[in-house]
Specification:
Blueprint: H1 10-24, E1 28-39, E2 45-50, E3 55-60, H2 62-67, E4 77-87, E5 92-102, H3 105-122, E6 139-144, H4 149-161, E7 165-170, H5 178-191, E8 202-207, H6 212-215, H7 221-229, E9 234-238, H8 246-250, E10 253-254, H9 258-265, H10 269-304, H11 308-346, H12 349-371, H13 374-379, E11 384-387, H14 396-402, E12 404-409, E13 412-418, E14 423-430
Parallel strand pairs: 3-5, 6-7, 6-8, 8-9, 9-10
Antiparallel strand pairs: 1-2, 1-4, 2-3, 4-5, 11-12, 12-13, 13-14
């Protein structure tokens, strides 16, 4: 039809090319490096994809850009899925991006480091946030694929060690949408009421080994944040021992393998039984040893305590001895008194001598008393100073404050008036105080 026309308008040519290009490239996957990426105020992204020889303009509309798992940034090698469309106003064409994914392990590792740095700065990997795994959980929740070796290994290992209830939340573990479903499973377990028999005491998020692309859902932000926000302690077991995903840093415990996660989750029942048996034996032996030592101690104390008959006999003996001594003492006292009476009757002058000795003793005491009397002291040249109430004055300060003094000598009392500078004698000497 177009070939029959001799002349085409510009619009006709542009429209024909548009139809041709969009029909031929309505769904393409283009690999290239992003450069010149710019976000418009509208939220749309305008960028280019390049390789060593060519450049392809591209656009990502706002709604699509907000849902992308890959952050648009210069220098990242990606695979863009979409369609080629033309822009008639400038005779140009561009790729309308509908999906974007990283291309190559190098790009993935670069993005992984960027996310790791971001989460570290936010504190999502802080050790202080880690929760302790319960020693013996009642229920274990497992987030993994419902088929395959991983879930079988976990179940078998838990049953071998210590059988407990296992609740599996089946999710895809790779591919598009896997990250959202893994995060939803973690959140779903946490949403189970605390009093429910199905609420786990610990979670295991696991999958087997694979490439970095296969394991990528466990590096997605939605999964890392779900693990960080989990109130239930969580064990990550993703890939092989050498594989380290971002979920491992956010989890409370990282297990090298899914089997290792089961070993972290439950102890070995036989070991617990053996430990209890050993502890029981040690407890019994300790109790027996304690009571044996207590019995020996009681026996030692018992040997030191005399019998009741012995105590009564010894007391009776002491009582008898004291009774005999009392009889002898009373008898001796009577004998002494009788001898004294006999001696008095035989020697009358004994009483006279006794009275003389007592009189001499009394006389000596009188002389001593006289030597320390007030009159005797005054006769030796001393004076007795008192106030007008006849209270003894011992210091000059007391004398000044009294104003009126009585000064007693051996032959009488002199009254005196005290001023600040002198003491004036008032009145005459009088005695017979």
């Amino acid at each position: 039809m177009l070939a029959e026309k001799k002349e085409w308008t510009v619009s006709e040519v542009s429209f024909a090319i548009k139809q041709l290009v969009e029909n031929a490239f309505d769904h393409v996957r283009v690999k290239g490096e992003i450069f010149g990426a710019k976000r418009a105020d509208s939220g749309h992204w305008y960028l280019s994809l390049k390789d060593e020889n060519s450049v392809l303009a591209a656009v990502c509309w706002r709604g699509v850009a907000n849902a992308l798992n890959v952050k648009i940034a210069d220098g990242i090698e990606v695979i863009a899925t979409g369609k080629i469309t033309t822009f008639n106003g400038r005779s140009s064409y561009q790729l309308v991006i509908e999906q974007l994914e990283l291309a190559g392990e190098g790009a993935l590792l670069k993005l992984l480091e960027e996310r790791k740095k971001k989460f570290l700065e936010e504190g999502l990997f802080d050790a202080a946030h880690k929760k302790k795994i319960p020693y013996l959980p009642r229920v274990i929740g497992v987030v993994t694929s419902p088929t395959g070796a991983v879930i079988r290994d976990i179940i078998h290992r838990i049953r071998d060690r210590f059988p407990v209830q296992i609740v599996v939340w089946p999710t895809p573990v790779q591919g598009e949408g896997a990250a959202d479903k893994i995060a939803a499973a973690i959140q779903g377990f946490n949403a189970i009421p605390a009093n429910s028999d199905l609420r786990p005491d610990v979670l295991i998020v696991a999958r087997g080994g694979g490439s970095l692309e296969d394991l990528w859902p466990f590096n997605e932000e939605v999964v890392v944040r779900a693990v960080y926000n989990s109130e239930i302690p969580l064990i990550s077991a993703v890939g092989h021992e050498t594989d380290t995903m971002l979920i491992d840093y956010a989890a409370d415990v990282r297990a090298p393998t899914p089997t290792g996660a089961a070993e972290f989750a439950v102890p070995v029942k036989s070991e617990i039984y053996q430990n209890l048996l050993t502890s029981d034996i040690r407890l019994k032996n300790t109790i027996i040893r304690y009571f044996n030592e207590l019995n020996q101690y009681i026996e030692v104390l018992g040997n030191k305590i005399p019998s009741l008959e012995q105590i009564v006999a010894e007391s009776q003996q002491k009582l008898d001895e004291r009774g005999e001594r009392l009889k002898l003492a009373f008898s001796n006292l009577l004998k002494d008194k009788d001898n004294l009476l006999k001696l008095t009757n035989l020697k009358p002058f004994y009483i006279t001598n006794l009275l003389a000795a007592k009189n001499e003793s009394i006389k000596n005491l009188g002389l001593r008393l006289e030597s320390v009397s007030i009159d005797s002291v005054l006769k030796r040249g001393f004076a007795w100073v008192s106030d007008d109430q006849f209270q003894t004055i011992y210091t000059t300060n007391k004398a000044k404050s009294s104003h009126r003094l009585h000064i007693r000598f051996a032959d009488g009392i002199v009254k005196a008036q005290v001023t600040e500078r002198y003491c004036a004698i008032q009145g005459d000497l009088f005695d017979n105080f």
